[in-house]
Structures are given as structure tokens and as C-alpha cells.
């Protein structure tokens, strides 16, 4: 089911954060970026350059320290613990990526490589999804336990249900991302045919609005450089 995004700015206005999540982390903000007219495809020279630069930036920024010691990632670990997750087992997405920097980040496809590079370089969780596979607006909620989550196991699609209280992104068809930014669902993942996408940049207190805006601008610049003529809009959701 495609989202009604003839006007992507209008779709952006429907993105919402449930009060229960605001109570859990009043310092949380989401910078939501939507883009259409994207040019998908396998990893290429441009995405390789972005990832290599991000790896170099991350090594310099961490200077040998463990990723979880970075103030922003430490705050994300606290946020995970607040709703019952164990961050040493299910890590915030940016921490999981930064742990892979010494051996090299994965090369997935053009669009995924772009957002992974921005996530690592700016040390913030960042996910991208196919907007044409959304069903209605994106909402950040605390799960009731009834929302379906489509994932894969052994090459097959399976449906799970999140424990009550878990912080999840969802739409009208179910959960699109578990544990705030830990794992995306199979239904909305980016593919080699994605031309419209939504990207969510997650920030907590240690990352101020200027730093969040800089990360968002870096993402927009990379998307437009990769897909000349793409239409991009964004909204800061508090």
C-alpha cells in the first residue's frame, strides 16, 4: 500500500511522536527527511567515497575510545534501558555501525550507503525506508504488544509482536522499526528500485539542534549529489 505523498510536505506534517515517548525522553527530536526522484542502484564509486570518508571521520572523532563512551551514544543506551531493552545485546543503530568501522562498514546499495555514512560521520542513529511501502503516517509510539512486525528468518518472512512498552516507529500496517532505531521491518526496507524514501535522524540531549541540522544538511546534500533533480523536504519533530 503506497503512502499518499503526492505532496511530500503534507505527508511530513502527519509524522507524530506519542506523548508516552515524550514522557520517557523529553529531550528527543526527530529530523525527518523525505525525498522523491531518487536514483537507486548498487553501491558505486560515489557511495564508496562517502563511506570511506565517514570511516576516517569516525576514527578521528572516537580517537580509540569505545563507541558507547561517546556522549550521544551513551544517552541512547540510557534511552534503551528506560523501556526495558538491553543495549549490550540490541544496540542503537549508530553504535552498531561504529563498531564495524575498524573492519570496514558494509557496502549495501547507493541509498543505504549514503545514510549509513551520515550516521557514522555525525554519530547519530539514522534510518531510511521506502515511502511507497508505507501505509499512512509515521508515528513513534510505545507498543501495546498487538502491532505486527514483519522480519526475515532463514530467508523467510515471519511476523513478530513487540513486547508492550517498547518504543517503535509504526504506520497503519504495523511496526516499521523496532526499539526506536534498532531493526527495520522487511516491508519498508530500501531496495534497488526505491525512488521515494523517508529518512529519520534521531537526536537526544547531547546532540544539539545545530549539530542535528548539520547532519540533516549533509544527508540532503548527499542525496541531491547522488540523484540530481530529486525533490527533498524536511521537518524537525519535537
TrEMBL record:
UniProt cross-references to InterPro entries, sorted A to Z: B3/B4_tRNA-bd, Phe-tRNA_synthase-like_B3/B4
Top-level lineage group: Bacteria
Record-annotated B3/B4 tRNA-binding domain positions: 74-228
Protein name, entry field: B3/B4 tRNA-binding domain-containing protein
Amino acid at each position: 500500500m503506497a503512502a499518499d505523498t503526492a505532496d511530500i510536505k503534507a505527508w511530513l506534517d502527519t509524522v507524530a511522536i506519542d506523548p508516552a515517548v515524550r514522557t520517557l525522553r523529553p529531550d528527543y527530536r526527530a529530523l525527518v527527511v523525505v525525498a522523491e526522484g531518487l536514483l537507486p542502484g548498487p553501491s558505486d564509486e560515489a557511495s564508496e567515497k562517502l563511506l570511506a570518508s565517514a570511516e576516517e571521520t569516525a576514527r578521528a572523532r572516537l580517537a580509540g575510545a569505545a563507541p558507547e563512551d561517546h556522549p550521544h551514544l551513551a544517552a541512547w543506551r540510557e534511552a534503551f534501558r528506560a523501556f526495558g531493552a538491553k543495549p549490550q545485546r540490541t544496540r542503537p543503530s549508530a553504535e552498531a555501525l561504529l563498531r564495524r568501522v575498524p573492519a570496514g562498514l558494509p557496502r549495501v546499495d547507493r541509498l543505504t550507503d549514503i545514510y549509513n555514512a551520515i550516521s557514522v560521520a555525525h554519530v547519530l542513529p539514522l534510518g531510511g525506508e521506502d515511502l511507497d511501502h508505507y501505509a499512512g503516517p509515521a508515528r513513534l509510539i510505545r507498543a501495546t504488544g498487538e502491532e505486527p512486525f514483519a522480519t526475515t528468518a532463514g530467508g523467510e518472512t515471519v511476523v513478530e509482536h513487540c513486547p508492550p512498552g517498547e518504543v517503535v516507529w509504526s504506520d497503519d500496517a504495523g511496526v516499521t522499526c523496532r526499539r526506536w532505531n534498532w531493526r527495520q521491518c522487511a516491508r519498508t526496507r530500501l531496495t534497488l528500485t526505491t525512488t521515494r524514501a523517508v529518512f529519520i535522524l534521531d537526536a537526544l540531549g547531547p546532540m544539539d539542534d545545530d549539530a542535528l541540522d548539520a547532519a540533516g544538511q549533509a544527508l540532503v546534500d548527499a542525496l541531491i549529489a547522488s540523484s540530481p533533480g530529486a525533490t527533498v523536504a524536511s521537518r524537525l519533530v519535537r
